[in-house]
Amino acid sequence: MLWFDFPGQSRLLTPGQQPSLGSGSGAIVVAQSRDEILVANTGMDTLELIQRIRASSINPATLDALKITVEQLCCDYAHGDARELMSASRDWLSKVTNLLDNRLTLAQHRDILNNAGMLSLLVGCLEYDVGEARSAEATRRMAIELGRESGEPEIVGWGYEMLAWFHLTAGNYRAAISAAKTGATFAPSHSVAVQLYGQQAKAYARMGQPKEVRAALENGRALLDKLAYPERPENHFVVDPDKWDFYAMDTYRIVGEDQLAQRNAEEVIRRSVTPDGVVISPMRSQEAQLTLAVIAARKGDIEAASALGVEALQSGRQSLPSLVMVGSELAHELEAYGPGAGADFRALLREIIARH
Predict the structure, then answer these.
(1) Largest separation between any pair of C-alpha atoms in the chain
(2) 271-293 tens-digit pLDDT
(3) Checking DSSP bridges between strand 12-13 and strand 28-29, what pairing results, if any?
(4) What pLDDT sits at residue 39?
(5) Among 99, 192, 201, 318, whose CB has the most other CB atoms within 10 angstroms?
(6) Helix (DSSP H) and strand (DSSP E) numbers for the chain
(7) Separation of alpha carbons 29 and 19, rounded Å
(8) CA 83 to mean position of chain CA atoms
(9) How many Cα neighbours within 13 Å face the side chain of 188?
């Protein structure tokens, strides 16, 4: 499958939109409801799955349905309401961990631990997005323990990727690099290692070390090229070429490679919106808009920079720490033009920082 779309085409369908039979479009449905996906793959809906879990009917079909449900929750991260998704994920995490009290085979125990680990990662990310940093750290630690207990190195790797992200957005760049390197030792050939290289590149860029930035980007790209294209690229815990372009965009902006940053930002925005205008990756789109705003500010176009910045900050689904980090970089660029430059953007950013 080509990893890019031709002009006017998209492999992504919006909620309720169905591919035409015989169209040959190769479209991938990414926004179906969890129940629709569950029924299509297992023949049971959420209610039946919950009833089976409560009845301790732990058979292969039940575990398959549970895995599908957890995966879909992870796919909903990009566009779902953060607090609603966090509540649903916490409910499922409670149900899944309760299963560990039952009599299980070794394989069943491992599968349940894996699902609990993935849910913990998801809940931790959502908690951090909405500003619950302490809860996010506790949940992250639980995910790592579940990953270690189940023998799943990728879950452990993602736990350290989250730690790198926490440190990066807090301005602790050396700690972010250390966490990323630790995570890579647990899962050196998994998808998460690509993102760990991306976090290193982001931190090195902010430390003013271009040589290390290039090395991290090259290592991440080389590993990504060796991996198979994911079946569900919209899953938050996989890395595909689109996500890698998003990471590279951030580093290009920081090191002053404005042409490369602009090219990647425009591509990120294009891929974040369906042909019908539905935003399917709002958080990526926000950071891409802020990148374009930074570039506009560097060119002296204060009005465009402020307008793009305000638009990005007003979007619905947000990761507050990431938004504050990149928004503050735009505010710094605007400061060079005097205290009144980008006043609307600065005021809105102060409101978000106060909430954060």
Answers:
(1) 67
(2) 998 888 888 899 999 999 999 99
(3) parallel
(4) 82
(5) 201
(6) 16, 2
(7) 8
(8) 16
(9) 1
